Amino acid sequence: DLEVPHSEAEEETPLADVKCLMVQQQYIVTDMSGTLYVIHITNARERILYEKFLSAIQNQPIAVQQSLFPETIELTPAKAEVLKDLKPELLKLGYELESIDATHFAVNGTPNAEDGEDVQTVIDNFLDAYKANVLNHRYEKEQNLALSMARQKCTAYKAMSEECEIIDFLKQLFDCQVNQVSPSGRKIIRQIGLTELASWFEK
């Protein structure tokens, strides 16, 4: 992992004065201590969300925002059976779901930071990913839950336009237990030293 110290004094961290360049909302390019870092935003976000969701399941449940007018989602009978077994864990992830009948569920609450999301699509795709991992004997249950949800949400994020938003995003990444590789196994950070960079322009 990157050697980024976690100082309690914000101004003492290497990120305090770092300058960043956003490229097509896909990459962050920054220079720290003479090394150029290129960060893949979607892969980084998957890592950040995965560790957040795993922590929610194991220790710190995400707050639920109650719905004044609960919407209803409909699932296939097979998905509905899986969902019924996962309701306690989904509640820890911020989704309060109540069975109406064999295939319909009332969405009584969602994560408090997820206004406007399409719950039907999120839950549908989440269950597809979860079931595929179960069939392929991948991951323990908690890791499967966290990864399946992270994959649904890592591409649906608000564009970062202010440098303070980019810095905050980098802090979240560097605070992860693993920050070089996404939970799906994709590389997050590419480091380019000045010597390598200079070699690009040699004859």
Q: What attributes does this structure have?
A:
four-stranded antiparallel sheet, 40% helix, disordered N terminus
Question: Describe it for me?
Answer:
This protein is of the alpha+beta class and 203 residues long. The protein has helices spanning 41-58, 77-92, 119-135, 141-153, 163-174, 194-199, and strands at 20-23, 27-32, 35-40, 64-74, 96-99, 104-111, 189-193. The chain starts with 19 loop residues before the first strand and ends with a helix. Mean pLDDT is 86; it is low at 1-13.
- Overall body shape: elongated
Which strand order does the major sheet show? 1-2-3-7
Number of strands: 7
What is the average per-residue confidence, as pLDDT, rounded to a whole number?
Answer: 86
Distance between the termini: 34 Å
Contiguous uncertain segments of 5+ residues: 1-13
Alpha-beta classification: alpha+beta
Radius of gyration: 20 Å
Tally of separate helices: 6
Give the SSE order as H and E letters.
Answer: EEEHEHEEHHHEH
Q: Helix proportion of residues, in percent?
A: 40-55%
Task: Please indicate the percent range of residues in DSSP E strands (runs of 2 or more).
Answer: 15-25%
What characterizes the major β-sheet?
4 strands, antiparallel
